[in-house]
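Quick one, tokens below. Sequence please?
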């Protein structure tokens, strides 16, 4: 009796999943964050299931296989992607066309796996060392006890530390393309001296992302300002939720994500956020780092540029916004904390504009550019990728500081309006 009761309780618990986010997989990931049937793990080793969302680049297939095999067996995989599935997974995977019921499908599949009614996934990587053991030369040793590459892994050689010049063994590794700390698709080669970043080399840029459809429609036709601004507020609040999660405030992040998904005209920022928790972010590691200046300030657009003092905002050129009394909000310092405050202030402003727009039935005026949540969007010139600006902002920071700085930017490029609209039309 007790065993049956425990099994019943276990079946009701959310399943820990690790998402592999590909191109256009962000919306499905947000749906999973809101699903009571699953919880999103920050490491594949803490998950029961792998979930593939969006299209995976051909160059990232090997990385996907390594991530898949890190999830402890027995495991399942859920496939919500246009990418061709590896044939080894076809017998055990669950294939889901839309993300609406994905969480429940995963939960039922794991329950069937635990009950013995379903088989788990096989490993995708061969059980072999990354390089053969040769005993001498490049495959094994070097001169004396230093150098060489035993099993393909280079042995550490001491270098001077950035802070005090002491001799430390540097740690060189790659992170991405499916790390939750980086935008999907980004790969970076990192050198650590202790916990300090001594090198940050961009290996591959993040996948382009797709904005909410209302911003693409606004490029060509009038849309309700209320709809535009609620989408903008939700975007910024989800970015703040990611910052909360990065700093260990998972419950607050989850609550903010739910509130962002339920925004309505008339909502105040105090209705959907915990002001005290968000204000406390200014004390976290890295809040005062990552100062944008010089070329970086020129290259950036949208909230990141306004957080560094720029007052450029395409809404200034829209008569409907001018009638509603719109004026750009700016910060001065250009730090990580400034960018978080910019998101919060622009979310608050967006809710105010959404209410005023609903009251006046205001419609946007199509013009050369629409101000998206990440910068000006046009038919052919969307916001561009800025991930190459990271090295001078991150080198010299401790790891926790660097991750906070990285999490204060919207780095990936945006799909241009024509392509995104064509894809949305094909999907209808």
């Amino acid at each position: 009796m007790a065993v049956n009761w425990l099994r019943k309780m276990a079946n009701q618990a959310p399943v820990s999943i690790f998402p592999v986010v590909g191109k256009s997989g962000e919306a499905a990931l947000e749906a999973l964050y809101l699903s009571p049937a699953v919880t999103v793990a920050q490491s594949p080793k803490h998950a029961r299931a792998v979930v593939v969302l969006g299209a995976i680049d051909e160059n990232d297939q090997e990385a996907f296989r390594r991530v898949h095999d890190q999830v402890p067996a027995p495991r399942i995989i859920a496939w919500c992607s246009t990418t061709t599935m590896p044939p080894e997974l076809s017998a055990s995977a669950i294939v889901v066309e839309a993300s609406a019921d994905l969480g429940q499908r995963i939960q039922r599949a794991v329950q069937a796996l635990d009950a013995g009614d379903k088989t788990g996934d096989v490993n995708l990587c061969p059980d072999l060392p990354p390089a053969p053991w040769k005993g001498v030369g490049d495959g094994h040793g070097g001169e004396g006890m230093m150098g060489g590459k035993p099993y393909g892994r280079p042995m550490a050689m001491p270098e001077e530390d950035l802070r005090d010049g002491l001799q430390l063994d540097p740690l060189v590794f790659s992170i991405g393309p499916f790390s939750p700390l980086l935008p999907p698709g980004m790969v970076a080669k990192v050198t650590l001296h202790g916990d300090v970043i001594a090198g940050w080399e961009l290996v591959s840029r993040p996948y382009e992302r797709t904005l909410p459809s209302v911003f693409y429609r606004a490029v060509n036709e009038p849309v309700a300002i209320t709809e535009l601004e609620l989408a903008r507020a939700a975007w910024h609040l989800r970015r703040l939720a990611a910052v909360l999660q990065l700093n260990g405030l998972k419950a607050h992040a989850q609550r903010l994500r739910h509130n962002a998904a339920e925004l309505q005209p008339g909502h105040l920022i105090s209705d959907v956020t915990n002001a005290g928790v968000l204000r406390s972010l200014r004390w976290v590691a890295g809040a005062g780092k990552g100062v944008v200046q010089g070329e970086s300030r020129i290259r950036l657009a949208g909230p990141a540029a306004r957080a560094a003092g720029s007052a450029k905002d395409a809404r200034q050129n829209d008569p409907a916004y001018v009638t509603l009394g719109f004026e750009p909000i700016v910060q001065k310092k250009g730090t990580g904390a400034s960018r978080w405050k910019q998101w919060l202030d622009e979310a608050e402003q967006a809710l105010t504009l959404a209410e005023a727009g609903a009251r006046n039935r205001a419609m946007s005026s199509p013009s050369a550019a629409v101000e998206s949540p990440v910068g000006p969007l046009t038919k052919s010139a969307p916001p561009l990728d800025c991930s190459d600006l990271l090295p001078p902002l991150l080198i010299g920071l401790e790891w926790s500081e660097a991750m906070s700085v990285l999490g204060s930017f919207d780095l990936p490029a945006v799909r241009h309006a024509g392509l995104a609209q064509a894809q949305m039309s094909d999907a209808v």
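Residues 137-145, 421-428 have pLDDT under 50 and may be disordered. The first strand starts at residue 15 and ends at 21.
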